[in-house]
Amino acid sequence: MSTLGGYDSSAGRSAHRVGAPTLIPVPSLLRSLLSDHLDPGYAAAAQAGRQRGRGTEWTWQVLAAVMIAAVFVFAWAQAQSTAPGVRESQKVLAASVRSAETATTEIAARRDALAADVDAESRRRLEGDATGRQLLADLDQANAGAAATPVIGPGLTVTVTDPGVTRDLSDVSKERVEGSRQVILDRDLQLVVNSLWLSGAEAISVGGVRIGPNVTMRQAGGGILVDNRPIASPYVILAVGPPHAMSEVFDRSTGLQRLRLLETSYGVGVNVATGEGLALPAGSVREVNFAKQIGAK
């Protein structure tokens, strides 16, 4: 019996054992082809390729880290170089705002003084006869409806305060205004004002601004504007009218119910009190360019 299995140096010689298989000499190349399925050259090339791939990957990672670090360093250096200019610009803007506020306050005071002089002169000229007195009575009634005259009397004071730091509740953690801790919105105050009108209020002011015709209350970013004037927490709402009758109706109103819900859910401060001698300023009177009597033909 012959076996193809390797190379025997004594094959073909007289040193043959009885019953032992006869080994046929096989060259080393053929033996390697039969036993080694991958050429050593390919294996070496694959190993070298893997090593080069790992080296390239590490190189790109290092380059990416260096670039990110360089970007951050550049941004930090840019911020440091521009910081003095930014601070100076902020100071200039703040000074401009303060100057504009001062000028606006002075102009408003002069306007009010001139309006008072005109009113006094008109009354002096019209009080001399019955027709003039009737005209003054009509003007007073119209000015009261237009919130153009200051009002002092009894009524309700509603104070609403945004929470400083709310409790960690699931509902509280959701900010009603993105990026701020503000909870009270313009629609909340609008609902309170409308509820006070329904409760019998004769005159209302919000944050020291008189509510009258053409007066708007709207959200502006994280603040609230009443007649284009910013107001801030605590929001004080004054309503002149019969205090006890107003209180009974307002206690059942949707406005107060909304405030109580915000108080429970967000920790908003809500206080309602009756008082005497509430002083409401006159509202802004805008020039009327066109008017038409309702129902006129």
Would you kindly provide a written description of the structure presented here, covering whatever features stand out?
- The chain is of the alpha+beta class and 297 residues long.
- Strand 6 and strand 7 form a beta hairpin.
- It has a domain at 151-280: Protein of unknown function DUF881 (Alpha-Beta Plaits, 2-Layer Sandwich), CATH 3.30.70.1880.
- Residues 1-8 and 165-175 have low confidence and may be disordered.
- The protein contains six helices and ten strands, in the order E-E-H-H-H-E-H-E-E-E-E-E-E-H-H-E.
- Helix content is 49%, strand content 17%.
- Strands 5-4-9-3-10 form a five-stranded antiparallel beta sheet.
Judging by the overall fold, what is the CATH architecture of one domain? Answer: 2-Layer Sandwich
Order of helices and strands: EEHHHEHEEEEEEHHE
User: Structural class of the helices, strands and pairings?
Assistant: alpha+beta
Indicate the mean pLDDT. 78
Which strand order do you get reading across the main beta sheet?
Answer: 5-4-9-3-10
> What does the overall shape look like?
elongated
| Unreliable residue stretches | 1-8, 165-175
Q: Can you identify the CATH superfamily of one domain? A: Protein of unknown function DUF881
Number of helices: 6
How far is the N terminus from the C terminus? 132 Å
Q: Which class of one domain in CATH terms?
A: Alpha Beta
Percent of sequence in beta strands:
15-25%
The biggest beta sheet is recorded as: 5 strands, antiparallel
| Radius of gyration, whole Å | 45 Å
The CATH topology annotation of one domain reads as: Alpha-Beta Plaits
Helix content: 40-55%
Number of strands: 10
